[in-house]
Specification:
By secondary structure, the protein is mainly α. The chain contains five helices and no strands.
């Protein structure tokens, strides 16, 4: 995940008074960030430029990022999906555990 894009997204959410990094509610913030990271991984696994989707969300002031409607989905090679999973696992190693429903969804996406 592009750190600059992620920080821009967090700043945009703060400006809209819809932060997902609120220090007064750390548990809620962790879950919200995990939800967004899972969405990023899903978009990336579908073959889209997930970082570009973050930038689009910033420019359109969306509260979540979405894959482009007009771009075809390209399947990733298994090694690329594994590399993405390793990167996400390393980055969020100390975060609260991911909900089982999200894990199941990611498994489904990876098996396609």
């Amino acid at each position: 995940m592009d750190a600059e894009a992620w920080e821009a997204f967090l700043r945009m959410r703060r400006k809209l008074k819809k932060p997902i990094d609120d220090p007064s509610e750390p548990q809620l913030s962790k879950r919200a960030q995990q939800k967004h990271v899972a969405r990023w991984a899903e978009i990336k696994a579908a073959g889209h430029d997930a970082n570009e989707c973050i930038w689009t969300a910033c420019s359109e002031r969306w509260l979540m990022f979405y894959p482009p409607k007009d771009a075809p989905i390209e399947r990733l090679a298994s090694s690329q999906a594994d590399e993405t999973k390793r990167m996400l696992d390393e980055r969020f190693r100390d975060a609260a555990p991911m909900p089982e429903s999200v894990r199941q969804h990611l498994r489904m996406v990876r098996s396609c």
